[in-house]
């Protein structure tokens, strides 16, 4: 509502210099709260007052998620393929190579077995070659500590954010080199001796900092050994890593498959596998099932029953 006539007359008495300021043209800015009373039905003084300072838009935080070891909601575009940034084959960090099986023809044997069990897979296998289990890729395994650390960093953040945090994390231990792409990943002892506050400057949450330092401690004390991880069967690898805070079933399965190149890993908790397996048997996947607070396309027993015939690949 408009102010009283007397109020409008007083507006003409304002200094001409004041009128040049667009934030000071309102009469209500020039008067104290005690000197002005809005008419009945008018907005309050607080609503009429023009802000003297524009608020700056808050920049979004890179790390705003709490770690949970579970696949991301299928309708959210996030880190659904975080393992692609976790296991960098171009890294300069030293890696081990353990021949768990004959790598020369393992891929051809696997493809032949899968097609014999389900001929419908032939077109898919021929269209999408599995370079991950090629002889060259199998002989070049990643460094376990680096892969597991990056897995923790990448949990529940986008792929772009995870890569940015990883680069800043590595740069903390190589401050004199400008090209962060050629930095060596820090050793467990380096990370364990670094304070939480310094590690958090890379963009890590406090919880993830605790997880990574806990992982580094287990490597330093020998509780987890890289050679053991390469040579041990999956059951032993799982029993060892599941005790580490920040690593759950899904993370360990991804590490065993994409890092250690285990050939008989089937992740029933992976939403991508659930969705495509449900579609392959003709199930309607548009209606997502919710069980026990978790998103499910199929239950674990159904998936294991279908996958059993594809063993050991």
TrEMBL record:
Keyword DNA repair found: yes
Entry keyword Cytoplasm: no
GO cellular component: nucleus; protein-DNA complex
UniProt region (Disordered), positions on chain: 32-53
InterPro entries: Alkylbase_DNA_Glycosylase/TA (IPR051912), DNA_glycosylase (IPR011257), HhH-GPD_domain (IPR003265)
Domain spans labelled HhH-GPD: 153-308
BP GO terms, sorted: base-excision repair, AP site formation; DNA alkylation repair
Annotated family: Belongs to the alkylbase DNA glycosidase AlkA family.
Protein name (Swiss-Prot/TrEMBL): Bgt-5368
Organism: Blumeria graminis f. sp. tritici 96224
């Amino acid at each position: 509502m408009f102010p009283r006539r007397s109020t409008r007359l007083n507006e003409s008495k304002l200094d001409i210099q004041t009128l040049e300021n667009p934030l000071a043209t309102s009469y209500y800015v020039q008067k104290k709260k005690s000197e002005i009373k809005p008419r009945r039905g008018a907005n309050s003084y607080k609503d009429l007052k023009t802000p003297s300072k524009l608020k700056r838009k808050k920049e979004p935080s890179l790390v705003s998620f709490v770690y949970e070891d579970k696949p991301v909601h299928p309708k959210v575009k996030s880190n659904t393929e975080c393992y692609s940034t976790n296991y960098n084959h171009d890294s300069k960090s030293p890696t081990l190579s353990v021949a768990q099986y004959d790598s020369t023809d393992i891929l051809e044997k696997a493809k032949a077995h899968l097609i014999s069990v389900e001929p419908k897979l032939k077109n898919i296998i021929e269209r999408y070659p599995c370079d991950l289990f090629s002889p060259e890729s199998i002989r070049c395994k990643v460094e376990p500590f680096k892969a597991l650390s990056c897995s923790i960093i990448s949990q529940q953040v986008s792929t772009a954010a995870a890569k940015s945090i990883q680069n800043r994390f590595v740069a903390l231990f190589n401050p004199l080199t400008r090209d962060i792409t050629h930095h060596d990943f820090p050793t467990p002892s380096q990370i364990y001796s670094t304070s939480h506050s310094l590690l958090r400057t890379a963009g890590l949450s406090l919880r993830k900092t605790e997880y990574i330092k806990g992982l580094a401690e287990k490597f330093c004390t020998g509780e987890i050994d890289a050679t053991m991880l390469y040579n041990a069967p999956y059951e032993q690898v799982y029993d060892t890593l599941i005790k580490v805070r920040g690593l759950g079933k899904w993370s360990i399965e991804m590490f065993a498959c994409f890092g250690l190149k285990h050939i008989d890993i089937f992740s029933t908790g992976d939403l991508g596998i659930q969705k495509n397996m449900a579609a392959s048997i003709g199930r309607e996947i548009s209606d997502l099932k919710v069980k026990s607070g978790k998103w499910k396309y199929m239950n674990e027993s159904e998936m294991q029953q279908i996958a059993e015939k594809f063993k050991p690949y």
